[in-house]
Design brief:
Largest sheet: 8 strands, parallel
Strand order of the largest sheet: 4-13-12-11-10-7-6-5
Number of strands: 15
Length: 527
């Protein structure tokens, strides 16, 4: 192949050169073919890519086709029920609801209802007329130690940082939260002006990097925290332990995305990757965490304080519960992020193989809180591929009180699942700091779509509850949803995730056998 290309190159240049003397128009051929010939010659003598070296010029087609493979599959190959991490059906549902288009479907489901894993709502013959129940219920978040409890919506914006997302995207999300009456989680990237500009309720997520509340050496700053935590827009404080997409890894914002403004907001220096450590420096034991919770509660003037966690070692979460009992200090909420959660960028091993999936984690967290007699004090927030009314009911059925969504809200902004979040080249202006791309996203227009998507999704969830004969999310139990676990075997979540007795984890003698190992290993003096 290399010899054939070299012969072709020599012959082509010689022929075109001869013809140019005959007619100057042939010089146009030289302008067309000469760059291709030069590229081919370069391919022959470069050493990094074997295919291009062995097949000059022609070998480039392989890399071209590989680069556009995701787009080819998405637009021409995948069916409505395919596509990862979200199928075309799921994406279309969000687009239709955000644009106020018809989201009904004709001719029946495209899902195979006999596949293992298929799930459904157990409806009631005593269904409730939808018009008689509250289509936008509120859930009170705040323990007995919280002096400023918050009335939260059933469906809210999950943690996404300014820096990972463009300022236009952040402004659209917050304005949408204001229009729809739900909250907007800042993500660990700090509290930016764009989280406040729209006037929407904000949950301030504080990660291991302590962005917007740190000293020059990266430690937690009480002074910086107090300045921001007492703002009217800030309704709750969330301490981030881990996120589902990369638990135990910390966060990375590439230096290409770090503008002067982002550096100023996060209280960091520009010109280098911003890396969040995998662990906190403000505390190192469960009891020290309780001290930190009391500190945040005091300096936020009594606002709800919670944690965000992807469950890993079960004994570590049990140790937090033991510390709450020992110190008589309660969290107000726990955000459970499933291992299927998303992020702008994560090592594939972390996304694929680290962290407990959401359903198992929800059941575990609920049962632990119930087992320690803490559930009445603490609300559970579910996060992890929640984009539909059924997704919400499924989470409520296992143990959640409310739900968050990140990628669903991104779809409402116009995200097309281009999978360019990590490259600063998002074509829809959502996950980029390129001003030329970001300006294509108009916050005034997209905020309406975010609010509409949230409203229609909550409405759908409440319609499902009404069909099941339930009039409020608090009344959802584990027997509301069924799953096909084998070809001819069906279980409700009550059978799959058998609840443990309330208070059984307070005494060693009553600890269930399948919890005993983790309970015995858990201690309040270290994680």
């Amino acid at each position: 192949m290399r010899k054939a290309f070299l012969l072709f190159a020599i012959t082509s240049i010689s022929l075109i050169a001869m013809l140019t003397f005959v007619n100057w128009k042939f010089s146009l051929l030289l302008l067309i073919f000469l760059p291709l010939i030069i590229m081919g010659l370069y391919d022959m003598y470069q050493c990094k890519k074997t295919i291009r070296r062995n097949f000059p010029l022609l070998g480039r087609m392989r890399y071209l086709l590989e680069s556009i493979g995701p787009e080819m599959r998405q637009y021409f190959v995948e069916t409505d029920t395919e596509g990862k991490p979200f199928t075309r059906l799921q994406r279309s549902l969000v687009y239709q609801r955000s644009k106020n288009e018809t989201s009904t479907q004709p001719f029946g489901t495209q899902l195979n209802v006999y596949d293992t894993g298929y799930e459904w709502i157990n409806h009631s013959v005593k269904a409730i007329p939808f018009g008689t129940i509250n289509e936008n219920p509120r859930v009170k978040i705040g323990s007995s130690q919280c002096s400023q409890p918050y009335e939260a919506s059933l469906f809210n914006i999950s943690a996404m940082s300014y820096g990972s997302l463009s300022k236009n995207a952040i402004m659209a999300l917050n304005a949408g939260a204001k229009k729809g009456g739900f909250y907007h989680n800042t993500g660990e990237g700090g509290l930016s002006p764009y989280h406040l500009q729209g006037g929407g309720d904000v949950v301030w997520n504080i990660g291991t990097g302590y962005f917007s509340t740190r000293t020059s050496d990266g430690k937690f700053s009480v002074e910086e925290f107090s300045k921001r935590a007492t703002l009217d827009n800030v309704k709750m404080i969330e301490i981030k332990f881990s996120q589902g997409a990369k638990p135990g890894h910390g966060g990375i914002l590439p230096k290409e995305k770090v503008t002067d403004e982002i550096a100023s907001i996060r209280l960091v220096e520009k010109g280098q990757d911003i890396i969040s450590p995998p662990t906190h420096s403000a505390f190192s034991t469960p009891l020290e965490l309780m001290d930190f919770i009391r500190l945040l509660r005091e300096h936020s003037e009594g606002k709800p304080i919670g944690i965000k966690i992807c469950i890993g070692n079960k004994s570590e979460f049990i140790s937090i519960c033991k510390a709450m009992i020992a110190s008589q200090t309660y969290l107000d909420f726990i955000t459970v992020d499933g291992g299927e959660g998303g992020t702008g960028a994560a090592p594939p091993e972390y996304s694929d193989h680290v962290g407990m999936p959401l359903r198992d984690a929800l059941a575990f967290v609920y049962d632990c809180l119930n087992g320690f007699g803490l559930k009445e004090q603490i609300k559970i927030i579910a996060s992890g591929k929640v984009i539909s009314g059924f997704d919400i009911i499924r989470c409520l059925s296992i143990g959640a009180d409310i739900c968050n969504s990140a990628r669903g809200m991104m779809f409402a902004l116009g995200c097309i699942q281009a999978l360019e979040c990590h490259a600063n080249t998002c074509p829809t202006g959502v996950a980029t700091q390129d001003p030329e791309l970001a300006k294509g996203l108009v916050p005034e227009e997209k905020s309406i779509r975010v609010a509409r998507f949230q409203h229609e999704t909550v409405k759908s969830a409440m319609e499902l509850l009404a069909s099941a004969g339930i009039n409020h999310p608090d009344a959802v139990s584990r027997d509301v949803v069924s799953t096909r676990v084998e070809r001819n075997k069906i279980e409700t979540f009550a059978e799959t995730f058998v609840e443990i007795p309330s208070g059984c984890l307070l005494n060693q003698a009553s600890v269930p056998s399948h919890y005993y190992h983790f309970w015995n290993k858990a201690t309040i003096t270290h994680f």
